[in-house]
Amino acid sequence: MIAQTDLAGSFALPGTSITVNRMGYGAMQLAGPHVFGPPRDTNEAVAVLHDAVESGVNHIDTSDYYGPHVTNQIIKRALHPYPKGLVIVTKLGARRGADASWIPALSRQKLIDGAHDNLKNLGIDVLDVVNLRVGGFTEPSEGSIEEPLTVLAELKRQGLIRHIGLSNVTAKQVAEAQAITEIVCVQNFYNVAQRKDDAFIDSLASQGIAYVPFFPLGGFTPLQSSALDAAAASLEVTPMQLALAWLLHRSPNILLIPGTSSRKHLRENLKAASLRIPAEALANLNSIGEQEKES
């Protein structure tokens, strides 16, 4: 029997033995409101993770600063000992204040401490993939990332990290990073309406590097587009399902990590893997991004 996620295809991370289904899962929403504190229903959060893995998801995106510590502890409770082939990708570079604020954590010691927190709360000895998170909330910042990335490269040499990715970066920063260590994935803000990374995605695809859009459905401000709504209605699917399917169609190196704390929404998201978009609807969706670029 073919798992629904298999219909999205798979992607091999460059220079690794890791192959993941392109339809993954993002754990951020398993934490409480504003990604802070415990969830309203921990049992439902555990059930969501069970359903995701049983549906063929083998790529889970998380971070120990979600909660903080909450999502990793729920992942451990739900899935440890982890099934063979499950890839857990985490992030370093931030921490949470007592007021739920997001605070950069890019010093050597904070990165080392963050790696050990992830190891402890996930209950593992080595992290599959770690993304260095830099820049602002949704936009990259110019400047060198050599100093923090060198710390992650050291942790990789020590055997605590297998592979390294980047989050919220520019093409120039990726090139700088590649002189320090191999980069297997990039995680930036991108969706059907937010298309600033179009050329960047194509460049990464030519190098075989995965591109993982964060906020693929708009994030804290859900996607709103009359063109998206009309196309979804014509195909008898939800706008969010169509937005995810468009991303899968956009480029074969795109990996999806839509998040939810609801099994119902999880199943709706996973159905996007089987959605095929007719040419006319695809053209209408592509025009959304063009309109955003011109505005």
Query: How many DSSP E strands?
Result: 11
User: CA-to-CA gap between the ends?
Assistant: 46 Å
Poorly predicted sequence stretches spanning 5 or more consecutive residues = none
Q: Main sheet, how many strands, which sense, barrel?
A: 7 strands, parallel
- Note the run of SSEs as H and E: EEEHEHEEEHEHEHEHEHHHH
Instruction: Describe the global form.
Output: globular
What's the pLDDT, averaged over the residues?
A: 95
**In what order do the strands lie side by side in the largest sheet?**
3-4-5-8-9-10-11
Helix content: 25-40%
Strand content: 15-25%
Radius of gyration: 18 Å
Number of helices: 10
Structural class: alpha/beta
Structural overview:
The model has no long low-confidence stretch (mean pLDDT 95). 46% of the residues are buried. The chain is globular and about 55 Å long. The protein is built from ten helices and eleven strands. The strands form three sheets. A seven-stranded parallel sheet has the order 3-4-5-8-9-10-11, with helices on one face. It has a two-stranded antiparallel sheet with strand order 1-2. Helix 3 packs across helix 4. By secondary structure, it is of the alpha/beta class.
